[in-house]
C-alpha cells in the first residue's frame, strides 16, 4: 500500500525521449522479412538541404537570388537562366495572346515581344546607373545587369501565369476589353519586376556591407541606406516604365 502511495505522490520521471520518437527513425518491421536487432539500426540523417531551383527562388526568395548573384560560381548560371526565363515566358505570353486574334502570326510574336522586353531593360540601364553615380552609390555595371535580368525574370513568370486572362477576354471582346486586359496584365508584370528589383538592390547593399565588415548582423548606416533607397526607387520606376512600353510591340503585329 505504501509503495502505491509513494508512486502516486512521487511518480517516476519519464524518459527524455519517448519510445515512439525513438522508433520513428528506424525502419518498420515487415512480417514478410526476417529481422534481427542488428538490422533495425537508426536511419541516417539527411546529408543537407537540397539546393532550390532557380525558378523557385525567382518566385519566392529574393535573398536567395542575391546570394546567387554575389557568388562568382553561380553568377553566370543565374544570368543565363534568367535570360532563358525571360525569353521563354514573354514568348509564351505573346503566342497565347496572339493566338486569340485570328490570322496573327504566333511565331513572329514570340520573337518580337521578348526582344522588345530586353530592349526595354537596356533602355533603363543607363538612367539607373547614372542615378547610382550621382548619389555616390555606384553599382558595378555587370552586377546591375544581372540584378535587372533576375528581377525581370520574376516579372516574366508572373506574365506567363496571367496569360490566360487576356486570351479569354480577347475572345469575348476584341475591341475594348481585350486590349485593356492586355495592358493591365503587362502593367502588373512590369510593376512586379520593378518592385523585385528594388527589393534585391536593398538586400544586396546589406549583404555587401556584412561581407565587408565580417559582421553577419551589420546594417547600413542612415546615410548609406538613404542613398541606396534612392537608387532602388529610381530603378523600380525606370524598369516598370520601360517594360510596360514593350507591350506596344503588339501594334507591330497587328
Throw out a few tags for this protein:
71% helix; mainly alpha; 0% strand; 254 residues
How is the topology of this model organized?
Elements: H1 2-9, H2 19-24, H3 54-59, H4 62-70, H5 72-99, H6 106-134, H7 141-161, H8 164-172, H9 177-213, H10 222-245, H11 249-252
Helix pairs in contact: 4-5, 4-7, 4-9, 5-6, 5-7, 5-8, 6-10, 7-9, 8-9, 9-10
Summarize the structure.
It is built from 11 helices and no strands. It has 254 residues and is an all-alpha fold. The radius of gyration is 28 Å and the shape is flat.
What does this protein structure show overall?
- This protein has 11 helices and no strands.
- The protein is an all-alpha fold.
- 33% of the residues are buried.
- The chain has one domain.
Low-confidence stretches: 17-24
Count of separate DSSP helical elements: 11
Report the structural category.
Answer: mainly alpha
Order of helices and strands: HHHHHHHHHHH
Largest beta-sheet details: none
Strand content bin:
under 5%
Tally of individual domains: 1
* Gross morphology: flat
Oligomer: single chain
Rounded mean pLDDT is: 82
Task: Give the number of DSSP strands.
Answer: 0
Report the C-alpha radius of gyration, rounded: 28 Å
Binned, the helix content reads over 70%
The N- and C-terminal alpha carbons lie at a distance of 97 Å
